[in-house]
Amino acid sequence: MGMEKNGNAEGKLSEYLYPPEILKRLDFSKSPAKFHPKISAVDPGEDWMIVRPLQRSDYDKGFLQLLSQLTSVGNITRKQYDDRFTKMKHSGGYYVTVIEDTRINKLIGAATLTIEQKFIHNCSLRGRLEDVVVNDTYRGKQLGKLIVVTVSLLAQELGCYKMSLDCKDKLIKFYETLGYKMEPGNSNAMNMRFDEPS
């Protein structure tokens, strides 16, 4: 009985936010991004790297520390992380995708695709790219490009009619090389903050 309990606990920890098989269906030839050398979600360029959905166990693999390289995360407990993972999984529409360095069992890159259900465009889906981050020490391996192209192709695979993002001015050129375009007359980002920015 003890082994069965342990097996169930282990199974829950390795639980994916979304089915990993979806990533195997992505066709990187559909992206305007140029990879030198060629890499993809199934072949990220190093045998010690894996591109996969976020797992419940990633609390212990540095997911929150990785996000803190992007913005303020706060002091999130395991229970808070676990509760948020459960809510995201059950509500659907959240596709947090990560890159893991399996040599050290740490996450080194991440991006989030959120999908909005729309009434417009014949009840279509719209994707939003959020929270793109790559660990500073892994720069130069095309991982930023890889994680963005992966979630962009994922949005297309899931039937989104478009994918949007907000970015700093200095990143516009980078995103343009991946197929994103500024839309004349429609390229403003506006926010209303309800908390104090950190």
From TrEMBL:
Ranges of residues in domain N-acetyltransferase: 49-198
Tagged with keyword ATP-binding: no
Coiled-coil region: none
Name of the top EC class for this enzyme: transferase
Pathway the protein contributes to: Nucleotide-sugar biosynthesis; UDP-N-acetyl-alpha-D-glucosamine biosynthesis; N-acetyl-alpha-D-glucosamine 1-phosphate from alpha-D-glucosamine 6-phosphate (route I): step 1/2
Gene Ontology molecular function terms on file: glucosamine 6-phosphate N-acetyltransferase activity
Enzyme Commission number(s): 2.3.1.4
Substrates-to-products reaction catalysed: D-glucosamine 6-phosphate + acetyl-CoA = N-acetyl-D-glucosamine 6-phosphate + CoA + H(+)
GO biological process: UDP-N-acetylglucosamine biosynthetic process
Pfam families assigned to the protein according to its UniProt record, in alphabetical order: Acetyltransf_1
Keywords: Acyltransferase, Transferase
Gene3D superfamilies, sorted: 3.40.630.30
PROSITE patterns named among the record's database cross-references: GNAT
InterPro entries named among the record's database cross-references: Acyl_CoA_acyltransferase, GNAT_dom, GNPNAT1-like
Sequence similarity: Belongs to the acetyltransferase family. GNA1 subfamily.
UniProt protein name: Glucosamine 6-phosphate N-acetyltransferase
Taxonomic path: Eukaryota, Metazoa, Ecdysozoa, Arthropoda, Hexapoda
